[in-house]
Amino acid sequence: MSENTAVSKPDARDDAALQPPVDVIEDTSGITLYADLAGVPKDKLHLHVEGDALTIEGEIDLEMPEGMESSHAEVGLARYRRVFTLSKELDASKVAAEFKNGVLKLSIPKAEHAQPRKVQVKVM
Amino acid sequence: MMYRSLFPRDVLSELDRLQREMQQGLHLSPSIRGIARGGFPAMNVGGTAKSVEIYAFAPGVDPATLDVQIEKGVLTVAGERKLDPPGEKATVHIDERFAGRFRRVVTLPDDIDANAVEAKYRDGVLRISIGRKEDAQARRITIQ
């Protein structure tokens, strides 16, 4: 998927996508996001940050025998998509991603200036 | 006089979206085992003249812990998904992913050959391919 697909408005049918379940955990160093993207091979996973929007997109690619007819489908679309808004203390340029067995792990560190520091409380 | 539509455009498109979502959600045939939508793992079932194909969407599961059984025409997929526990001082903002033990059961057609089963785990999807019995295949008659 090219960059400009996000800009040009695709028609409604192309726009339909599954919303992958996620876990978002925050600690002092930053935010860790896990997303379940079963059936997406590594080369069909697309991550991009534009401004403060983080987009996770993936296309499901299953091996299917020729002439297979579906009789029951709980996963009825072949695409995942979810967009998150990043807050400004996060450093989007240092996002680290791991993708294994259909699980994406994103580590988004906090910017240097937003790292925790102890605030001295003065007793007057 | 100012004219205001009773149904402005955005409401119509909103209704359209709702309808689309409902159709997606209800596109299922009823079964005695109920509709386990939202169950883990999500399953797709399909078939060809030679085989029955079952896809279980189980991302992040250790394939060694998966237990696949066929008994009396019923396929059972069981296992456990363990997630990394968050650190002590961590805050959980969103918690949607399934964790724990799971078991799902699928009724199989009558003509399957329980000895011709293949299971593969790739990209978080378990694909179970079950062959159909030879004599059942031969019985299929092409109408010209």
UniProtKB/TrEMBL annotation, chain A:
Pfam families xrefs: HSP20
PANTHER family xref list: 26.5 KDA HEAT SHOCK PROTEIN, MITOCHONDRIAL (PTHR46733), HEAT SHOCK PROTEIN 21, CHLOROPLASTIC (PTHR46733:SF4)
Keywords: Stress response
Annotated organism of origin: Candidatus Accumulibacter appositus
Entry-linked InterPro entries: A-crystallin/Hsp20_dom, HSP20-like_chaperone, HSP21-like
Domain SHSP: 13-124
Protein name per its UniProtKB record: Spore protein SP21
Biological process according to GO: response to heat
Family: Belongs to the small heat shock protein (HSP20) family.
UniProtKB/TrEMBL annotation, chain B:
Residue ranges of every copy of the SHSP domain listed in the record: 34-144
Pfam families found in the cross-reference section: HSP20
SUPFAM superfamilies reported for this sequence: HSP20-like chaperones
CDD domains: ACD_sHsps-like
Listed Gene3D superfamilies: 2.60.40.790
Protein family membership: Belongs to the small heat shock protein (HSP20) family.
Name the record gives this protein: SHSP domain-containing protein
Organism: Candidatus Accumulibacter appositus
Lineage summary: Bacteria, Pseudomonadati, Pseudomonadota, Betaproteobacteria, Candidatus Accumulibacter
